[in-house]
Please model this.
Amino acid sequence: QVQLVESGGGSVQAGGSLRLSCAASEYTYSNSAMGWFRQAPGKGRERVVSATAGGSNTYYTDSVKGRFTISRDNAKNTLYLQMNSLKPEDTATYFCAADPSYWTLYRGQASYWGQGTQVTVSS
Model:
């Protein structure tokens, strides 16, 4: 059974930092495109960053470029999202996602999703 378990959300002031973690099964981690999405209250789900299987290529949405960084710990089968210079508009529930197909993930139609972790940024 595929499981994606997220952690690391919280509340910070604008300009602060948070790191989100997504622990996956070994097979999923090694064989899936993975990424982070977010959904703010009253808005649709938005792709934050997507990465090809193995993490060789990553693609960030424009609003987070230069502030957010995706990374991997292969020994722990864990995907991270380091978020710096946070803004109030980054407030959302953040989801880790995985899919064997990168483009399916990219379109937000991933087969596997984590439970979500809340990030709240105050001004």
